[in-house]
Amino acid sequence: MAWPARFFPWRAAGGPKIRVAVVGNCQARPMAALLSLMNPGIEVRTVAVVHLLRDEEEAAYAPLFREADFILSQHVADTYPCAFVRTSELRQRYGSKLLLWLNLYFRGYNPELFVLRMDGRTPLRGPLGDYHCRAFFEGWQQGLPVREILARHGDPEYNRERYAAVPEASLAELQRREELTQTRILPVLRDLVWKQRLFFTFNHPSWALLEMLAASLLELMGLSAAPRRSLRGSEPLGMIRIPLNPWVRQAHDLKFPEDGTWTGLKVRNIGPGTVTVGKRKVYAPEDLVRQFFAVYDAHRAALQDRQTGGAAVT
User: Fold this and answer.
1) Is residue 151 located within the same domain as residue 184?
2) Banded model confidence at residue 272, pLDDT cuts 50, 70, 90
3) What mean pLDDT is predicted for residues 271-286?
4) Which residue, among 232, 237, 175, 235, has the nearest Cα to 203 in the 3D structure?
5) Could you list the residue range(s) of the whole structural domain that residue 39 is in?
6) 4: exposed, middle or buried (C-beta count within 10 Å: 0-12, 13-18, 19+)?
7) CA-CA distance, 294 to 155, in Å (whole number)?
8) Does 88 have pLDDT greater than 80?
9) CATH of residue 207
């Protein structure tokens, strides 16, 4: 049974710790690290990364969930394949010690990105990890030369025609998601989103944004943030970095700096139905498009009828 938050003031060093379990997507591990850094009274007992879990692993996690004072979870739908991390299941089993936090997601910086799922679940990997660029994929489908594809991608008007509604629609979707949780940071996000870069890809937020969300979670637990070392320069979700969409930068008169490089992952092997990637790599734009072409050519039979509009975006 969870203790009421009033029993958990900010703890002095050496005092009893609050045991938490963190449940979520790729944001869960950075969130767990942040909570421990921001308050030394937090003890993270486990981090359950939902897309890596299967039902048969429930026995390993159940004792850790039972022993936790709080289970801090993103909202997980009832249709999710792994049943024991669904929000409805966690609420039924653990009641008031379940606290829900927002799954940070914003497509407004690079609305051209999408995830291409070959079997309805597994992403097709490439030089940008799980992410693909619509102009590159559609250009490959249409047999366009690399130079023309890059000119299309870099044309603000081309991007405006396709993506003008995306930034506000994405913020509206984020508000809908936040209403399913107990954290509240959307007003701050709206205020800052065009002043500093808060996301690297649509589901990979910056350390600064995660820190704001962690502060909201600490408040829900009746805790405050302790003084800590600076986290500047550390971006656990910043491995993939691409330039802002040309129309987005122009339309919102964005001033925050970026180096304009395409930083992805080295493609090590392209085989039947598989693509393996390795360490980070900075790509010249032409080389990046050609590397995507190599991936698509190897999967031509599976991709020939696939349209980007129908590909799952996560």
Assistant:
1) no
2) confident
3) 93
4) 237
5) 5-105+167-220
6) exposed
7) 24
8) yes
9) 3.40.50.12080
Residues 161 and 295 in one domain: yes
Largest CA distance in the chain: 65
Assess whether 30 and 53 both reside in one domain.
yes
Question: Do 67 and 141 have their domain in common?
Answer: no
Q: What value does the mean pLDDT of the chain take?
A: 89
**Pair (36, 149) in one structural domain:** no
Q: Is residue 95 part of a domain?
A: yes
Give which of 181, 191, 194 is closest to 104, Cα–Cα.
Answer: 181
pLDDT of residue 301: 85
Based on the domain organization, do 56 and 98 belong to the same domain? yes
* Residue 86 belongs to some domain of the structure: yes
String of DSSP letters for the chain:
-PPPGGG-PPPPTTSPPEEEEEEESTTHHHHHHHHHHH-TTEEEEEEEEGGG--GGGHHHHHHHHHH-SEEEEE---TT-SSGGGSHHHHHHHHGGGEEEE------SS-TTEEE-BSSSSSBPPBTTBTEEEHHHHHHHHHT--HHHHHHHHT-HHHHHHHHTTHHHHHHHHHHHHHTTSS---HHHHHHHTTTS--EEETTEE-HHHHHHHHHHHHHHTT--PPP----TT--TT-SSB-PPPHHHHHHTT--S-----EEEEEEEEEETTEEEEEEEEEE-HHHHHHHHHHHHHHTHHHHTT--GGGS---
Whether 213 maps to a domain, the answer reads yes
Residues 292, 204 share a domain? no
Predicted local distance difference test score (pLDDT) of residue 53: 96
Does a structural domain hold residue 232?
no
Same domain, 19 and 50: yes
Rg (CA), the chain: 21
